Amino acid sequence: MSTDGTGAAEQHRPVPAEHLPLRPLWLCRRCGQPWPCGRARLVLVAEYRDNTVGLFLYLAGLLYEAIDDLHQLDPSTGGDVKGLFDRFLGWPARHHGGAESPR
Ligand SMILES: [Zn+2]
After folding, report:
1. Can you tell me the distance from the alpha carbon of 38 to that of 32, in angstroms, rounded to the nearest whole number?
2. Distance in Å, CA 93 to ligand 1 centroid
3. Residue 37 · residue 19 · CB < 8 Å
């Protein structure tokens, strides 16, 4: 009876929990929330903490693509641009506005 090394446990590295948008639906690939989900927002704020303008430019670009994607998916509901605008650009504005106290 020989013990050969075939049973070597492969190191299983879990995929980093990246909350990225699933296009063209623009839902989070991990948690299924409308993107950017809470986790994605945290990551973005951390990533762009020294570059607020960059964060807005990045999100504005994605907003443009999201409007385009969602409109092609369902032209009848493509009119919710205001909601999308708030979803992509409203929260960092509030985040950096500061004056608003959460109740
Ligand atoms: Zn998520």
Report:
1. 11
2. 20
3. yes
pTM of the shown model: 0.72
Q: 28 pairs with which residues across the strands?
A: 21
d(CA 99, ligand 1 centre) in Å: 27
Ligand 1 centroid to residue 97 C-alpha, Å: 24
Provide the 3-class DSSP secondary structure of residue 41.
helix
CA pair distance 37, 13, nearest whole angstrom: 24
Q: What does the pLDDT look like over 41-73, one tens digit per residue?
A: 999 999 999 999 999 999 999 999 999 999 898
The vertex-96 CA angle with 101 and 58, nearest 5°, equals 140
The alpha carbon of 35 and the centre of ligand 1 are apart by a number of angstroms equal to: 7
Residue 81 Cα to ligand 1 midpoint, Å, equals 21
Structure tokens at 75: 């032209």
Q: Any bridge partners for residue 62, and if so which? A: none
Residues in the chain: 103
